[in-house]
Amino acid sequence: MKKTIFHAAFILMALTALNSCSSKKGITMKNPCTKATSDKNFIRANMNASSSDLAMSSEMSLFNSKDRLAQLISSDMKRVSEAYKKQRNIAGTSEFDQKFESTVRDVVSETLREISIVCEETTKTTKQRENGTNYDSYTTWTSIECSRETIYNGINSSLSNDEKLRQDYDAAKFREVFNEEINKLEKEQP
After folding, report:
1. Mean per-residue pLDDT for 57-76?
2. Residue 169: how many CB atoms within 10 A of its CB?
3. Cross-sheet strand order for the sheet of 24-25
4. Distance between CA 45 and CA 138 in Å, rounded?
5. How far from 63 is each of 3, 68, 164, CA to CA, in Å?
6. How far apart (Å, rounded) are the C-alpha atoms in residues 114 and 150?
7. Less CB within 10 Å around the terminal CB: N or C of the chain?
8. C-alpha angle 154/157/158, rounded to 5°?
9. Most confident residue range from 94-108, 119-133, 162-176
10. What is the number of domains present in the chain?
């Protein structure tokens, strides 16, 4: 019994000591933009950034979100491309792959100019430097979205206008595969 009380008291003192050594004062941060997830109509990305400068925190968060969105679009379109090639039995797939990747890069670049911010929240936390002085740190969460239709239209337009690929390109089949893969991706999300 005495050992149990001793162990409980020791744990309580250790936790108190750890808590008092913390260099953070303020609120615990959690992502306030978690409801902004991708669906069948939009691809969404949310990231955060911290800085002692509020404007820099916001700017870096938007940049990080755009970078994440570009990654998501590229990986989604890679899946669409693979499924489309399998269903169409396209000869010379390396040429198709190169053109499709180039098209996706162009579309991503264009799409990032047409994003919408769906959530932006900033938290302020007071931190302590090693010398004991306090400073404020801002963490900004930014969630952005772009329409899957915009992505589809950009890729469709580019592939339709390429003379070499036009002979292998079936717009209706591409639309079908695009929609199938997007539905699969939506179901995979938590």
Report:
1. 93
2. 19
3. 24-25, 116-128, 134-147, 42-51
4. 20
5. 55, 9, 36
6. 9
7. C
8. 85
9. 119-133
10. 1
What is the CA angle 87-109-185, rounded to 5? 40
Q: Does the residue 190 lie in any domain?
A: no
Q: Report the alpha-carbon distance of residue 113 to residue 154 in Å, rounded.
A: 13
Please report where in the chains the tokens 């990080």 appear, as a residue.
Answer: 64
Task: List pLDDT tens digits, range 128-151.
Answer: 889 999 999 999 999 999 998 998
On the question of pLDDT at 110 being above 80, the answer is yes
Least confident of 15-19, 39-43, 49-53, 81-85: 15-19
Give the amino acid at 162: D
Where residue 93 falls among pLDDT bands split at 50, 70, 90? Answer: low
CB 81 within 8 A of CB 100: yes
What six digits make up the tokens of 126?
A: 């007071």
**Per-chain mean pLDDT for the chain:** 79
pLDDT tier, 83 (very low <50, low <70, confident <90, very high otherwise):
confident
Domain assignment present for residue 189? The answer is: no
Task: Count CB-CB contacts under 10 A for residue 78.
Answer: 15
What pLDDT score was predicted for residue 22?
Answer: 37
- Domain membership of residue 114 (yes or no) is yes
95 occurs within a structural domain: yes
Q: What is the DSSP letter of 167?
A: T
Taking CA atoms, 45 is separated from 17, 56, 72, 112, 156, in Å, by: 39, 19, 8, 12, 23
